[in-house]
Amino acid sequence: MSQEYDVVIVGGGHAGAQAAAALRQAAFKESIAVIGEDPNLPYERPPLSKEYLAGERSFDRMLLRPETFWRDREISILTGVRASIVDAEARTICANGSSISYRKLIWAAGGSARRLTCSGHDLGGVFTVRTRADADAISAALGQVNEIVVIGGGYIGLEAAAVLSKMGKKVTVLEALSRVLARVAGEPLSRFFEEEHRSHGVEIRLEARVDSLIGRDGVVAGVCLANGEILKAQMVIVGIGIIPSVAPLLEAGAAGSDGIHVDEYCRTSLPDIYAIGDCASHQSRFLDEKRIRLESVQNANDQAATVAKAIIGSPAPYTATPWFWSNQYDLRLQTVGLSAGHDAVVVRGDPKTRSFSVVYFRDGRIAALDCVNTPRDYVQGRKLVEGRVSMDKTAVADAEVALKDMPFVA
Ligand code: FAD
Fold it and tell me: What is the mean pLDDT of residues 389-406?
């Protein structure tokens, strides 16, 4: 069976769904299909490690749009369908054995959770947190579980640890590096979150290397560390990042490796093929034009808007300011800018008050802020990041003075 659409979007996550919605909003009248491997209508992922895992939000309230939205706008959402081959010359993709023709293709396939490869990785009771099915499987298994080991001290691992410890589970977080959040934040933020988790009874183990998982009757029973120590666990949650879903496009000849290379209009190196969201690697003006793959709702939504503009013929380059959030316990972390490659860090306020900001500098200019329960710094800091302004570090450290009232350094 062969089908034909003007725009085919592979991936029904934040980026793909938002691209379809943005096209219709821009009065794009031609046919649109969103092809998604997930059996559900497009939904938000962030609650999977937060409110949904905690049982505080229903799945219906995570849908990006109700079913009627897609129907009313004549956007075909093909769920449970996987695109496996892209033929850039014939302008077709192969999905679940069918050939689908496109005029424009948007690759918004995100990524899949990276899994362990050590012995025992495939035991029952070992989970990742990427899809609704993952979160449902964790919830269904929790009743039999008292001790949980979370492997990976990134945002998703820490958020899951916060939810599960609040449920009364004994949670241990294993981080291979010398601090949690090491890839995304500076040391003051890492140390703050380590202390915060410890104060809630979560054990944080740093420089902890997993050797293997030990099973009993096919279900995980413990984690064996490289130093020979064994931690009892009836559940293991693996939060060690994602593998971007890029293989079919790379095989079709698109430039890229860890992510599909795109230009400022989200165009790949292949004709009429765009890439957006977690799977796309763009050059960021917030990182001295270096390439980066951003895994955030902001990036997915803003790149979706960029691609829609390009397709309707009013292109505008992607220049959006990166931002992100994470909720752990009663803490609201908001980050703006990109802290990668920072060469100085200033802490505004006292972390002991659980309300403070970490300001990152690159070449004397403000590159990013991590704001913990400090929405005012987040809002005012955003302008400083966008302007890449220089500021006196001692002045910035004075939390009594609002960032907006501080003089710039010429
Ligand atoms: P995805 O949401 O991954 O969507 C891609 C879709 O493509 C998937 O549904 C997948 O099934 C489908 N797909 C893949 N390959 C194929 C194929 N070959 N054929 C058909 N379909 C395919 N970001 C924040 O900004 N703040 C947060 O607090 C936050 N928390 C998060 C918590 C969790 C647990 C997770 C998993 C992510 C979180 N994120 C957060 C990240 C954010 O959700 C992602 O950046 C965002 O979902 C990326 O959207 P995307 O559309 O690019 O990719």
Answer: 92
Structural fold of domain 2-112+242-311? FAD/NAD(P)-binding domain (3.50.50)
Query: What is the atom index within ligand 1 of the atom nearest the CA of 327?
Result: 28
* Domain at 330-405: CATH code: 3.30.390.30
Q: End-to-end CA distance of the chain: give it in Å, rounded.
A: 64
Q: What's the fold here for domain 115-238?
A: FAD/NAD(P)-binding domain (3.50.50)
Q: Using a 6 Å cutoff on CB, does residue 156 contact ligand 1? A: yes
Domain boundaries, the chain: 2-112+242-311, 115-238, 330-405
Each residue's pLDDT tens digit, 232-275:
999 999 999 999 999 999 999 999 999 999 999 999 999 999 99
The atom number, within ligand 1, closest to the CA of 84 reads 18
Measured CA angle at 325 (ends 386, 408), to 5 deg: 25
Is residue 259 in contact with ligand 1, taking CB distance under 6 Å? Answer: no
Closest ligand 1 atom number to CA of residue 298: 25
Closest CA to 220 of 115, 125, 122: 125
What is the Cα 368 distance to its own chain's centre? Answer: 18
pLDDT in tens, 18-76: 999 999 999 999 999 999 999 999 999 999 999 999 999 999 999 999 999 999 999 99
Q: What's the 14 CA to ligand 1 centre distance in angstroms?
A: 6
CA atoms of 12 and 79, how far apart (whole Å): 8
Q: Provide the whole-model pTM.
A: 0.96
- Cβ proximity of 150 and 160 under 8 Å: yes
139: three-class secondary structure by DSSP: helix
Which atom of ligand 1 is least distant from the CA of 47? 32
Ligand 1 centroid to 18 CA: how many Å?
12
Query: Is residue 310 lining ligand 1, measured as CB closer than 6 Å?
Result: no
